[in-house]
Amino acid sequence: MGHSALYTMCRILQDPGVAQDVCLLRGAVFHVNMALWGTKRVTTLKCTSTSVLPSFLCVSVSYCATYAFYYWNFILFIMSLF
């Protein structure tokens, strides 16, 4: 995964047209998470959490309240790492 793939996934997360495609959103969140903070992170990516978190916020706002709670906990966890 490179910078352009990360950018594409962030754009997918911000796109209101795919807000109902749960599998696509989960996949984008998963791959962004694994690329930046996972056990097999891509060390060549120079991306801070503040550049990705707004995309996660778009997902949580457009999603139902149950998943919004999950995403906010995830965001708070990421912020606690820094």
What features would you describe in this structure?
- With 82 residues, this protein is mainly α.
- It has one domain.
- The chain contains 4 helices and no strands.
- The longest helix is centred in the middle third of the chain and has 16 residues, at 22-37.
- The chain is globular.
- The model has no long low-confidence stretch (mean pLDDT 80).
Provide a brief overview of the structure.
By secondary structure, this protein is an all-alpha fold. The protein has helices at residues 3-14, 22-37, 49-62, 65-80.
Q: Helices and strands: which structural class?
A: mainly alpha
What is the share of helical residues? over 70%
The total of helices stands at 4
Number of beta-strand segments? 0
Strand content: under 5%
Count of discrete structural domains: 1
Question: Which value, in Å, is the CA radius of gyration?
Answer: 12 Å
Give the overall shape, derived from the CA principal axes.
globular
> How confident is the prediction overall: mean pLDDT?
80
Distance between the termini: 23 Å
**What order do the helices and strands follow?**
HHHH
Q: Enumerate the spans where pLDDT stays under 50 for 5 or more consecutive residues.
A: none
Major beta-sheet overview: none
List the helices and strands and how they pair.
Blueprint: H1 3-14, H2 22-37, H3 49-62, H4 65-80
